[in-house]
Write a structure and sequence with these properties.
Elements: H1 2-6, E1 13-15, E2 28-41, H2 43-49, E3 61-65, H3 70-81, E4 87-92, H4 95-103, E5 108-112, H5 116-123, E6 126-142, H6 150-163
Parallel strand pairs: 3-4, 3-5
Antiparallel strand pairs: 1-6, 2-5, 2-6
Length: 166
Amino acid sequence: MLADLAIHKVDMVLSDTPITSATSIKAYNHLLGESELSCFATFRLAKTFGKGFPQSMNGAPVLLPTAEYAVRHLLDTWFQDNNLHPSIRGQFDDSALIKSFGQAGLGEFFMSSAIEGEVCKNFNVKVIGRLKGIKQKYYAISAERKVKHPAVAEICDIARTALFSD
């Protein structure tokens, strides 16, 4: 995606990881906001593993993003800091797949607290806990230092005011 950004094939990349100077692509990070993480489960799984969160995660089936994602590092650190040992049932490169497998009852999963309502409604799951103090950041990466492209500017403005307006 960043290569497409460099040749102006795309105008913006949304990411949970900022671009660094280690990359040869000239691009700029625009922080959209940050959100705590929530743990979701089907009502059946919540009945078994929902009480006593987060300690109830010991042995609980979980679905996680792969190690390439910044949020995975946040989760791994959180598990370690809280001495939690869940049973990892799947690792995914696609958040839609995590939600779908979670909806099927294959494990608890984590998503941004900013979208709790949509996740619960669309996937028929419930929040069983929130990871207080653990915040996932979101960036728009563009080829422009100051965003001038009208669509990119609108996306950034809406994300900052409607999605991450804590």
